[in-house]
């Protein structure tokens, strides 16, 4: 077995050496996965880049469950071993890597055994990982652990984390600071994540663990070292989501620019804003309104490059000619997109089985009523399956739907769905009087800003 393992590691290291020939200092990680029925063929080692995990290396797992890494370490920091458990917030294997470390890991289903010639600070890191593992089940998708269990436990869990943090007193001040930050981040980020998980029992909105109030502050994120832990960015995102959903005011999406007032460090602002824009699914109109207030903070080359590509994609369809489709109305009369030339056209792609689509219907009715007689056409285009044509007709009649009511011929395989890359509904399309695209992912009728946009277009 030893010969087999040595040969495996030697082969892997020969490949790794080619990536860092000029760097003489390495950390070595050798591991064995001892989990019944384990079938993964690869283990991933993540480093941290801008508060998120980034793949540093991958290693094959042999038939004995063995794997190995020899990785150049130019700067000490956290790395994370993933054999398939990482994203599910299962067992955390976080290591603090420095040059010349030689670490052995024996990985079982619920824990890992640490050994080796030089494990550095990782005995202490393992204790921090155990605290993470105690919090993680409350924020794990599918566990359905409710506030009934979490609220009585959290004070004890936070006290244990605080007590451990106070015990971190090695001779390496930078490591001490980073590990304390990691523990605090784990506890807080997992707590906010708890409130984002599906549950079968829910507390009153005002019923929240008292500890959370102590975490809320006007100047929340001040330490750039938050970008050195893999859940640093997630902490910021989950914090602002929690605040927006649990404030005294009605739930709303927190304004991205508003969030930056709580972030004082420029690097944190830059990274947070880039991620917030990338994940926000903003419409063109929403982005253009907020862009002037956030661009001054997006100062890194990475953010500048991101914005160029983001805006390019956001506007890729603007000005292009709309698809000239022809579909039947409820009386089986053919109606074409070209019939509406000379008017603004607002199209609602929906289906009778779609709950969110039907939730927009009252707003659609109201906006059609308010804009009746103006130079705009409202088209509701059903993506129901062809076999449900009568069901669609009956729904239109029963609900007294107004505007132009059409049904596509092949639901999501129809030309209109394929042309505009529609894979989810409701979806709204807006066209100018020449039949060119204004927005292929337009604002919903329930969004008050749609009326502002239509008013401007009708005046121009």
From TrEMBL:
Top-level taxon: Bacteria
Keyword terms, alphabetized: Cytochrome c-type biogenesis, Disulfide bond, Redox-active center, Signal
Residue ranges annotated for the Thioredoxin domain, each copy included: 316-459
Predominant place of localization: other
Location of this chain's protein in the cell: Cell envelope
Keyword check for Transferase: no
Signal peptide: 1-20
CDD domains per the UniProt record, alphabetical: TlpA_like_family
Family annotation (Gene3D superfamilies): Glutaredoxin (3.40.30.10)
PANTHER family for the chain: THIOL:DISULFIDE INTERCHANGE PROTEIN DSBE (PTHR42852)
Protein name as it appears in the record: TlpA family protein disulfide reductase
The species this protein was found in: Flavobacterium branchiicola
């Amino acid at each position: 077995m030893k010969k087999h393992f040595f040969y495996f590691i030697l082969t892997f290291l020969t490949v790794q050496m080619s990536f860092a020939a000029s760097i003489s200092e390495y950390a070595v990680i050798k591991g064995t996965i001892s989990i019944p029925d384990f079938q993964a063929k690869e283990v991933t080692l993540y480093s941290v880049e801008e508060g998120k995990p980034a793949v540093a290396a991958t290693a094959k797992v042999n038939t004995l469950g063995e794997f190995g890494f020899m990785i150049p370490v130019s700067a000490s920091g956290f790395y994370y071993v993933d054999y398939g458990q990482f994203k599910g917030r299962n067992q955390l294997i976080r290591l603090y890597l420095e040059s010349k470390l030689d670490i052995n890991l024996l990985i079982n289903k619920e824990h890992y055994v640490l050994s080796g010639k030089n494990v550095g600070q990782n005995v202490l890191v393992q204790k921090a990982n155990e605290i993470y593992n105690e919090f993680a089940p409350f924020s794990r998708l599918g566990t359905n652990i409710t506030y009934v269990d979490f609220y009585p436990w959290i004070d004890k869990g936070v006290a244990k984390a605080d007590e451990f943090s106070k015990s971190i007193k090695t001779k390496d001040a930078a490591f001490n600071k980073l590990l304390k930050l990691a523990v605090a981040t784990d506890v807080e980020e997992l707590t906010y994540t708890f409130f984002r998980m599906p549950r079968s029992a829910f507390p009153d909105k005002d019923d929240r663990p008292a500890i959370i109030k102590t975490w809320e502050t006007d100047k929340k994120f001040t330490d750039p070292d938050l970008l050195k832990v893999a859940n640093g960015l997630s902490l910021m995102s989950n914090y602002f989501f929690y605040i927006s959903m649990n404030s005294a005011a009605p739930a709303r999406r927190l304004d991205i620019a508003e969030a930056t007032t709580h972030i004082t460090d420029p690097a944190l602002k830059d990274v947070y804003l880039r991620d917030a824009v990338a994940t926000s699914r903003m419409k063109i109109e929403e982005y253009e309104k907020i862009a002037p207030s956030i661009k001054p903070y997006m100062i890194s080359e990475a953010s500048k490059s991101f914005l160029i590509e983001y805006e390019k994609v956001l506007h890729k369809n603007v000005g292009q000619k709309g698809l000239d489709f022809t579909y039947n109305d409820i009386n089986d009369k053919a109606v074409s997109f070209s019939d509406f030339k000379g008017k603004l056209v607002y199209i609602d792609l929906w289906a009778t089985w779609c709950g969110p689509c039907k939730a927009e219907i009252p707003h659609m009715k109201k906006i059609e009523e308010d804009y009746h007689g103006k130079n705009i056409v409202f088209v509701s285009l059903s993506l129901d399956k062809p076999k449900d044509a009568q069901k669609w007709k009956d729904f239109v009649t029963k609900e007294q739907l107004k505007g132009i009511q059409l049904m596509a011929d092949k639901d999501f395989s129809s030309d209109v769905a394929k042309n505009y890359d529609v894979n989810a509904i409701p979806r709204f399309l807006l066209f100018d009087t020449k039949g060119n695209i204004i927005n292929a992912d337009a604002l919903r009728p329930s969004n008050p800003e749609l009326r502002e946009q239509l008013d401007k277009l009708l005046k121009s």
